[in-house]
Each structure stands twice: as C-alpha cells, then as structure tokens.
C-alpha cells in the first residue's frame, strides 16, 4: 500500500483471514497493512494489500462477466441482489461488530448502518429506469434506451463504509454493469466481508472487491478497462480522480465533501429542535458528509439554543463503541484527529470566540475529541470556512434571514442544507434559496434511495440514488426510426 495509509507490516498475532474477491474467489496478497481500532489507536487486524496485477485480473474478470450479466433479464439481476441482501441480513451482528472495531462508531449505530444499507438496497431495486419514448409522430418514433457502461470502478471513504459500498454495488449491478470496488484503507474489512458474501450470489467477476491504499485508487482511475468511476470522498481527492479519469474519458460521479449550513429562524421551539440539531451535527462524531457543520441561529433564540445544545452535550457518553450507553465514538483515524485538533487550536486563537463546551482531546488512548460547541464565531475562520469532519460545531449569529442565506451560500461547497421555523411555508421559502443538492425543511440528514443525492459546486458531480442515480450508471442510446416520405412514383408529379 502507498502514501497516506497505515504502514505495511507483518505481524502474526492479529486477526487475519480477510481476502479480496477477484473473479468470484477469495484471494490474499503477499503484502498486507494494519487496520487500527480508533478507540485504542492499536492495530487489531491485517488486511491484504492488492497489487496492480490483481487489479488487472479483477478488471479482466469484470469485463468478461459483464457480457453475460448485462444480457440477463432485469428480474434475474434483481433476484440475485435481493438474495445477496438477505445473506447480508443474516450476518448483520457480525458485520456490525467488525464495523465498530474498524470505524469506531457505537455498536448500535453500526447495526443501524448495515440495516440502513439494506433498506437502500431495497429502494434501489424498487427504482426503475424506463425506456423513454421522446417522439412518436409524423416524423417517426424515437426512444431513449439506457445501456450499461461496462465496468464500474467504485471508491469509498471511511466514515460509513457499508452504507456507501452497498448502493454502489446495487446501482452498478441493477443497470447491468460489473463492478470493481475499493474501500478506504482505514476501514477495508467490512467491505471485504461484503465481497465474501457476494461470491455466493453473483456469477464470477460481476462483483470484485479489493483492498488497497490511495495509489491503488489512482491505478483504478487510470485503468483503461474501467468505464466509470463512482467516487465518494474528499473534494481534494475528487479533483485528482477527475483529472486522472480524463485520460481515458471515463465517466465520473463524484460525491464529495460538504460544509452544510442549518439556518434557525426566530420563531422556533428551541427545546423541540435542539436534540435534532445536535444529532444532525454530532452523529457519527460529526463524520458525515451532510452533517450540520455551520449552524446559523437568529439573534432572538441564539443564547437559548446554545444553552440547550451544551446541555445535551453534557449528557452524552463518549467512548469505545462496545461500552454500554456510548453515543459518540472516536474520530476514525489519526490524520483526521490531528486535523480537527489543529482547527480547534486555530479557533482558540480567534479574538472574541467562546468555546462553550469541549475544545480538547480526551485524556485517554484512541482518537477521542470532546463534543465541542463554539459560539460567537463567523466566516473568515477556518472552522467555519472549511469542512471540519469531526465533533465540533460553530454556532453563528444572524439578524436578517436574507443575510443568513447569502452567508450560507457563500461557500465553495453545496451538498445540503436546512431551514428551521415554526412556520413551515417560511422555512420552505428560505430553503428554496439554498444552493445545495438537498434542502431540508425542519429536518437535516439522511439519504433516501428514491431521492437523487449529490452536490452543487465543489460538493460533487452527478447524482446517486433515484432514477437519476441509475442514469449515471448508464449511457443513453437513441433508437430512432424516421418516417421517410414515400418517393413519388416515376411519371407522377415531379418533373424529370
Ligand atoms: P479521501 O478522499 O481521502 O479518500 C476516499 C477514498 O479515495 C479512499 O478509498 C482513498 O484510498 C481513495 N483515494 C485517495 N487518493 C486517491 C487517488 N489519488 N485516486 C483515487 N482514489 C484515491 O476521503 P476520506 O478522508 O476517506 O473521506 C472523508 C471525505 O468524504 C469527507 O470530505 C466527506 O465529506 C466525504 N464524503 C462525502 C460523501 C457524499 O456522499 N458526498 C459521503 C461520505 C463522505
């Protein structure tokens, strides 16, 4: 493995036996890397580190498998995906334990992630991408057919690895493509486990899952045998993916970072909405692309809402995901932990800013940061302008709704956002002005399988989920049958 991932090691006293899925079979690699439990900072497993030669074989297998897979009736492809989902369901507890160990989230949340992935799988299977008749008149008949692209290269991050792998597999396969999927080197094991289960349910080569580092992702984006990259991760990497994919004109879907604003108007019931706002910000330790990362609050309710959020933070148990009652786990990896601490150090240097709670790492092993709420902060600081991706929430004061909307939109991100008010019509009117892929009214967070999800601006390109999502796994073919006017018979009408 290369670059930013954990170090390559060979230690035999750790959990082993994880394998890639290549051409329907389990396979190890000569090299491996450590997977670290973020609650302890200590490695607990070895993960095989795939080579370029293994990627070449996986891509070749996917190309072979694609030929027959795309010709299967849609119903049969759906049946195979449904059987795969049912098999995953029988192993939810096992996957959840591994997810807590590699990702850090509380065990109950890990279970919910796997179950949510299955709900989304069902939702994708219920979505149809129909052939569209766009012309049927005196000029003839023309229809738009959706043709699979071939081999999808899917690349996922470390925050919700199961939730992100499952829809990429489902959307690729239901539209008739084969897939080669690479999880983050920080959380590769649950995805390798999905591959192990997939072997039993799909023809060899249809689903290939290989673990590797950042360089492996680069090999995928430049590979001539891959037709499209479906990437979820940071803006910086997304730009690299797009540049690299340009060499072979691969299609790309980029689901990138967000710096979501929630705007709270002056008429809200603070007690009722505070828990919703808190969890939309601190769930998964703030490591959700569409978490609230900038909370704009009207002056009239600012102090009351800040106090309510701090009170909730005081009741929340932070700790290892297997401990009873824990609701917030660690930050997932050392790099991210150091980045969030660096943002906090910068925040403390800003004049007038108040840290209402938290503000520091917890004095224990692992990558724990106390849930932190920062008041009297504004744009122009790193905490507000950048995506923190950790348990830290800046609360920004405003007096005028139009001004709050303008400030919320003054960002290179545009993933999602929300507006909160006792008057739903008022909230909706404001939400409609947000420059984001998803604008919520009195709600924030969640991807639903029938609604296209993706970002404006640097938060991404393309959409996943819904019929729009499936369209991005397909190429449009126009089949047109013009009505050619009958030629006048010789001697009739036209002069020779
Ligand atoms: P990251 O961009 O560092 O890594 C994501 C994946 O890309 C990993 O598998 C990594 O190995 C791979 N990668 C790294 N360099 C690569 C390269 N040059 N070519 C190809 N692949 C490469 O992101 P991360 O730190 O793992 O995840 C956090 C980010 O993901 C946050 O910004 C978050 O907002 C974003 N995210 C977005 C969504 C969404 O749906 N929009 C969902 C979850 C997370």
TrEMBL record:
Coiled coil: none annotated. Residues 31-479 form the Aldehyde dehydrogenase domain. Keywords: Oxidoreductase. The keyword Oxidoreductase applies. It holds the Pfam family Aldedh. The active site is at residue 255. Belongs to the aldehyde dehydrogenase family. This is Aldehyde dehydrogenase family protein.
């Amino acid at each position: 493995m290369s670059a930013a991932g954990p170090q390559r090691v060979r230690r035999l006293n750790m959990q082993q036996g994880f394998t890639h899925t290549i051409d329907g079979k389990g396979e190890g690699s000569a090299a491996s890397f450590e997977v670290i439990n973020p609650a302890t900072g200590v490695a607990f497993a070895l993960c095989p580190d795939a080579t370029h030669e293994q990627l070449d074989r996986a891509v070749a297998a996917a190309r072979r498998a694609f030929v027959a897979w795309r010709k299967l009736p849609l119903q049969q492809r759906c049946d195979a995906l449904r059987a795969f989902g049912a098999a995953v369901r029988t192993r939810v507890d096992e996957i959840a334990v591994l997810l807590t160990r590699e990702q850090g989230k509380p065990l109950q949340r890990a279970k919910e992630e796997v179950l949510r992935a299955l709900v989304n799988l069902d939702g994708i299977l219920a979505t149809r991408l129909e052939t569209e008749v766009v012309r049927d008149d005196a000029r003839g008949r023309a229809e738009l057919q959706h043709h699979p692209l071939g081999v999808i290269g899917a690349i996922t991050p470390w925050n919700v690895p199961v939730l992100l792998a499952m829809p990429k597999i489902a959307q690729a396969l239901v539209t008739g493509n084969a897939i080669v999927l690479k999880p983050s080197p920080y959380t590769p094991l649950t995805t390798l486990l999905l591959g192990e289960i997939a072997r039993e349910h799909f023809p060899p080569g249809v689903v290939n899952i290989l673990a590797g580092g950042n360089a492996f992702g680069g090999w995928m984006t430049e590979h001539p045998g891959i037709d499209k990259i479906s990437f979820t991760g940071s803006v910086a990497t997304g730009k690299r993916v797009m540049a690299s994919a340009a060499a072979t004109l691969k299609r790309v879907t980029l689901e990138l970072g967000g710096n979501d604003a929630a705007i709270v108007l002056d008429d809200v019931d603070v007690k009722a909405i505070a828990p919703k706002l808190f969890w939309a910000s601190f769930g998964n330790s703030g490591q959700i692309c569409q978490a609230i990362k900038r909370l704009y609050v009207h002056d009239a309710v600012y102090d009351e809402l800040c106090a309510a959020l701090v009170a909730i933070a005081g009741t929340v148990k932070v700790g290892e995901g297997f401990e009873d009652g824990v609701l917030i786990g660690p930050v997932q990896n050392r790099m991210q932990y150091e980045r969030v601490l660096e943002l906090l150090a910068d925040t403390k240097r800003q004049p007038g800013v108040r840290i209402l709670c938290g503000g520091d790492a917890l004095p224990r092993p692992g990558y724990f940061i106390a849930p932190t709420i920062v008041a009297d902060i504004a744009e122009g600081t790193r905490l507000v302008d950048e995506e923190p991706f950790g348990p830290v929430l800046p609360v920004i004061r405003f007096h005028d709704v139009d001004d709050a909307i303008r400030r919320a939109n003054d960002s290179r991100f545009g993933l999602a956002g929300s507006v909160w008010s006792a008057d739903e019509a008022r909230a909706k009117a404001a939400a409609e002005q947000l420059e984001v892929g998803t604008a919520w009214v009195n709600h924030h967070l969640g991807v639903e399988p029938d609604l296209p999800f993706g970002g404006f601006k640097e938060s991404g390109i393309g959409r996943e989920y819904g019929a729009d999502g499936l369209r991005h796994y397909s190429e449009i073919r126009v089949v047109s049958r013009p009505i050619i006017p009958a030629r006048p018979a010789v001697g009739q009408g036209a002069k020779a």
